[in-house]
Design a protein that fits this description.
With 96 residues, the protein is mainly α. It has four helices and no strands. The chain has helices at 5-30, 46-56, 60-63, 69-90. The chain starts with a helix and ends in a 6-residue tail after the last helix.
């Protein structure tokens, strides 16, 4: 009692299409383009053109100030500063 090959093939094709279209739609929406542009990701050679188009077009994040990355970098560096302070507190000798 197995599934028909056509049903398995159709379900697999739909899952693969969803796995390709969903991220492409999110990326195109973030760049300020229509999410329908993601349908080009299913067409051979058009998917490569889509990647180049999205890579070379100006992104909305590039046009605004990038205030999100700076606090995360500061918090990342703060971890190392706090580690250095902890090492100094327990009295380990400094590196020569």
């Amino acid at each position: 009692m197995g599934l028909d090959e056509g049903v398995v093939l159709a379900v697999t094709a739909l899952m693969a299409a969803a796995a390709i279209i969903w991220p492409a739609a999110r990326i195109s929406r973030r760049t300020g383009h229509s999410p329908w542009l993601a349908l080009a990701a299913l067409i051979p050679l058009a998917n490569i053109a889509l990647l180049w188009f999205l890579a070379l077009s100006p992104w909305q994040a590039d046009q605004t100030e990038n205030r999100v990355a700076l606090p995360s970098l500061r918090s990342f560096l703060a971890v190392f500063r706090s580690m250095r302070e902890r090492i100094q507190l327990i009295g380990l000798p400094p590196k020569p």
